[in-house]
């Protein structure tokens, strides 16, 4: 497939940013992390935006940031884990690139996110929060053009699998 952009979606801790930056390097495309762009634009950490304004406010900003990023091309875009929840975001992603969903087992995700302080939805008992959200979102990433289970794969292997689907 010839893609304008590659959009990585997936639950927190599935490796979107790590995979995305390596993939962008390999393609000689720009890497954009939508959470990082949003933090830069707002001059505020995501955890603080949630705390001060609530999740709905964050989601509105997230949609605007994503739509703006996706106006560009030759970019690998790592999205926030909840960006898939709004139908308008899903449509925008599908229209502007190859959408790749990264998945991982609950154990892998828990191990990867357990020391993180900038993920407001995982505050408290991380294991419980991850399991609850995974259950709530169990079909949320199915809209992607392709789904890759990263549990047993290295970053390089994931990048190779994605590259195999893209014609630059
Ligand atoms: C969220 C995931 C986070 C970030 C915010 C909300 C979610 O991004 O956008 O904390 O709802 O899953 P990562 O998937 O990059 O952690």
UniProtKB/TrEMBL annotation:
Which cofactors does this gene product need?
Mg(2+)
User: Binding of ATP: at which residues?
Assistant: 13-18, 119
Which catalytic reaction applies to this protein?
A: shikimate + ATP = 3-phosphoshikimate + ADP + H(+)
What remark does the entry make about the cofactor? Binds 1 Mg(2+) ion per subunit.
Q: Which residues take part in binding substrate?
A: 35, 59, 81, 137
Give the Gene Ontology MF terms in alphabetical order: kinase activity
Q: Where does Mg(2+) bind?
A: 17
Keyword Kinase listed:
yes
Tell me yes or no: is Metal-binding among this UniProt entry's keywords.
yes
The membrane-spanning stretches of this chain are none
Q: What is its main location?
A: cytoplasm
Can you say where in the cell this protein is located?
Cytoplasm
- Enumerate the UniProt keywords alphabetically: Amino-acid biosynthesis, Aromatic amino acid biosynthesis, ATP-binding, Cytoplasm, Kinase, Magnesium, Metal-binding, Nucleotide-binding, Transferase
Question: Highest taxon of the source?
Answer: Bacteria
Q: Which InterPro entries match?
A: P-loop_NTPase, Shikimate/glucono_kinase, Shikimate_kinase/TSH1, Shikimate_kinase_CS
Enzyme Commission number(s) of this protein = 2.7.1.71
Q: Which pathway is this protein assigned to?
A: Metabolic intermediate biosynthesis; chorismate biosynthesis; chorismate from D-erythrose 4-phosphate and phosphoenolpyruvate: step 5/7
Cited function: Catalyzes the specific phosphorylation of the 3-hydroxyl group of shikimic acid using ATP as a cosubstrate.
Q: How does it assemble?
A: Monomer.
The family annotation for this protein states: Belongs to the shikimate kinase family.
What name does UniProt use for this protein?
A: Shikimate kinase
| Native organism | Paenibacillus marchantiophytorum
Instruction: Print the organism lineage.
Output: Bacteria, Bacillati, Bacillota, Bacilli, Bacillales
């Amino acid at each position: 497939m010839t893609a304008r952009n590659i959009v990585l979606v997936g639950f927190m801790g599935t490796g979107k940013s790590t995979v995305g930056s390596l993939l962008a390097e390999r393609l000689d495309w720009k890497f954009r992390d939508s959470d990082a762009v949003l933090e830069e634009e707002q001059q505020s950490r995501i955890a603080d935006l949630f705390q001060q304004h609530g999740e709905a406010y964050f989601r509105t900003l997230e949609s605007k940031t994503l739509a703006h990023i996706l106006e560009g091309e030759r970019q690998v875009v790592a999205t926030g884990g909840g960006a898939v929840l709004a139908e308008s975001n899903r449509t925008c992603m599908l229209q502007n690139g190859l959408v790749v969903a990264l998945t991982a087992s609950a154990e892998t995700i828990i191990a990867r996110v357990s020391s993180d302080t900038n993920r407001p939805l995982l505050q408290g008992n991380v294991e419980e929060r991850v399991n609850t959200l995974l259950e709530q979102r169990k079909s949320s990433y199915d809209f992607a053009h392709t789904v890759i289970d990263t549990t047993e794969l290295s970053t390089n292997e994931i990048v190779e699998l994605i590259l195999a689907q893209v014609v630059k």
